[in-house]
Amino acid sequence: MTVCVIELNDSEIRVALGNDIILRSPGYAFIDKDRIEVGAAAIKQARLNPRAVHNRYWKNLNQDPLQYPSSRARHNADLAFAHLLAIHEQAGKPGEVIFAVPGSCSNEQLALLLGLVEASPLKAVGLVDTAVAATAPVAGKGNYVHIDIHLHQAILTRINVDEQVSRSSVQLIDGVGLTAIYDTTAQLIADLFIKESRFDPQHHPETEQALYDQIPACLDSLQTHTEVSLEIQYQQTLHHALLPAALLQQALQTRYQKILSAVNSADTCLLSDRVARLPGLAMQLAKTEVLPSTSVFQACQQHLTSIRSSGSALTFVTSLPATGEPAITEVRRQPPQQDAEAAPVDRQNITHILHGHQARPVSNERLYLSASGVINRNNADDSHCSVILNKGRVQCRPEAELTVFINGRQLQETAEVEAGDIISFVGSKTEYTFIHVSD
Known about the structure:
The protein folds into three domains: about 240 residues, 2-Layer Sandwich (Nucleotidyltransferase, domain 5), CATH 3.30.420; about 70 residues, Alpha-Beta Complex (Actin, Chain A, domain 4), CATH 3.90.640; about 80 residues, Tumour Suppressor Smad4 (Sandwich). Helix content is about 25%, strand content about 30%. It is built from ten helices and 29 strands. It has a seven-stranded mixed sheet with strand order 17-11-10-9-14-15-18. A six-stranded mixed sheet has the order 3-2-1-7-8-16, with helices on both faces. The chain has a six-stranded antiparallel sheet with strand order 20-19-29-28-25-26, with helices on one face. Helix 2 packs across helix 3, helix 5 packs across helix 6 and helix 5 packs antiparallel against helix 7. The radius of gyration is 24 Å and the shape is globular.
């Protein structure tokens, strides 16, 4: 019998047979009068019926009363149990199951989880730390920081790989979960709609739901495009907004900074595929590699005998044999490409820097740029970066503590730039573009 693996991440609980993911179910529950809906169906009600939708029951797995209890669910454990029942049914009623759980789970939560599983048709035969399992099949010897994101927190797990893959510490970062990422993204998009057509999609539940429904695909699109177009229908009017990747990265920078400040420049960061999809984050980490979405399931199949527990008591496995077969993929570091229909960028030597409709020549005399759009020949109090032509190459240098970006990647020291590169600033809509003007 093939053992089924359930990866408990409330942003998207994944169920796999072998290396094939057969079910993806977000940690949302919608309590109706006579039923509980979970997963994608519940997300569709999140903005329409906010009091009836819950998404903290996996993070706060306990028996504390819900804020809005009902006869169908009194506490978080009831919702988790309903979700387990739905997973069992939707995954084809698997028999034996291994659970991969995050390092944030306390012993009390693990005990409650196993109690819920025992009361369900599922049969748990193993319990393993997600970060350890994700790292085991793919990383060579060394020290790593595994970074994953859930609905309400990011989790950093320090991993040592030698003969064994073992976790040494777990750090929880609240306020950097996908719900916060989506809320920030939604507010920015709403502002763009208001600016474009004076239409606020967050003013009506149905249009706010339509806005949130588009965010996951929007973030995916921004991995390969410099901007993405959004549409929302309200009554008889179709409203449009254009979201630039650089602008979203600026809006998310405060949340990203909580992760960045917890990582040392010498750390090799292993990103889950969930984290790798966040626009601009990976490019700000010095040493970054992306783990396959199937690495957890691959490890559970390879190390089944090490994870599987005999008897009724399950051991929480936080160390696995190292495979010695690195298979990680280095994260893409170049900026997103322009859309296919856009004109190709001229990469010839830079002659000018463009802001709005004004182009200033670049020379061996340093120009100082501010986030407010002011360009000076002298280093003023509000100067945030500078550019200069040096030995035939244009260089950009940060001049203040305000975060400066080139193509969405943070500028931390002097760097060379090319025509088409864009300078932007955290918390500001100001942009400067390097251009080549032909004679």
